């Protein structure tokens, strides 16, 4: 990109452009004052010649101030590349974004912001992307789910410590954050002291909050801004943002725990919340440096969202989108799905799994009959297939769905198939996927895609009540593992177009998973079209933790967790059940012999899985080269207490899954190497 093109692009964006060579003749004498830049600095969405730089410098009065941004090739700013003045506005909560352009590809730069009194932010480090024809391997981390209210974020410190000691060619290019950057459900320690093994940390009060059970949730823009500031105040999050460029997509907690489109839901029926959706989008845009588009135009100074009203939504189109002007305007206030080409080997295709999502049919009151305390976390697979497909169920939608002795009315028989992506985003996704010439087409899907399945039909007689389903159980809907129709459409597209190197990376489940992307499992045909990975949470509590504190006297408890006499920690037999089946889980709970447990494995249950750890925390690292791709799980102990060690504390295990480049249309093959630790119940 030449200067004229960059200037034209910046003008079109309304962006402050930082261009090499634009160095002020008289430099400001800067002194670092981190207290005046309390959220530090960050960078995002790197391209070969540009990156977005960010800070927040709050002022007690006024509407507009100016900062000076400096860009250098060294952390001491002796090799200054460019300087530029940039506005910071009260209207944007005093956040500032600058487009640094005209940069060299695959190059480390340092940056800082300075106010008119010479007070400087901390120095930030960023890295530009390689050129699209750069043949060298690419490395990036992917993360999700960080709760400063309930946990500690030292997984980032481990990431930084290892990256700082790696040779340049092994350092990370960026961090992909797959959502739940914040948790909008805030607990107050004077009301709730503990949840599970966790001591509730005081992160302040949410202004104008609504109380839902023990949680306080935002009701306006000030509330969301408060929660973002509380999360970014965490030193480990702040250090990670200062070291790596982040590429981010929101999940559910950036808006509302059970939210979809512009609806919120707190145990009852969905409530329209169009102004709240706009507020959530605005706060995300203000605190996350990115190249997402917004309805008000491309400028980087302010969000300026549409003025919408809370209005009932009575009509939905054939993709489940609420056909009401305020709902459409609220959703359209920000379009977050986008793609990032990173060298010759990575095309990162990032989707938004909540803004266009149809109402989850398993969350509707009519579906409650399929869930039972007798079978925790189980939902009959055949029922979900019918509810997911609606009127498009192969062979025709039945009037009723059998469950035990009951014939449950099929409330979805006249409705369209469930969608997470929506019509327009799905068309864009297919176009980008089919046009990509990168070695690896990596789908950044915030929600998991790998099936979560169990075989309660194989429970021994007399062990609890008989399973009332017709076969396998799943966990219900809510992510792509239960969106059978849409997932099959996408995987058939990959197969029919002969798209090779198809890889999915996800978060949300607070657990580590590795396996194969396949639209169906036995007894149907098992035909993988790619590979898929899910990363554990940075800090948010997972299913294992919840199960340890629940099901105390439940007859099926051995399927989920077991605690042996004299042992302080419980073991997660849920991993064994998901990977091998109920008989294997019960055998391990009884004998503690993992080899005997694996000998009872049900080969038809989970041929798609090579690894699952429902208690995993940490992060994952992808290395993508011309001939192979590696995904490394770095799992840390449960982050329930502060760790002060410079390296972020110990590693529980380190496991690498590798796949050689496979022929388009051919089956992929994953190989597993345990580098450190013993994740024996996960394999």
TrEMBL record:
**Ranges where the PhoD-like phosphatase metallophosphatase domain occurs:** 140-548
Record's SUPFAM superfamilies? Metallo-dependent phosphatases
Domain of life from the UniProt record: Bacteria
Q: Which residues form the Phospholipase D N-terminal domain?
A: 40-128
Protein name in UniProt = Phosphodiesterase
Q: Which organism is it from?
A: Sphingomonas horti
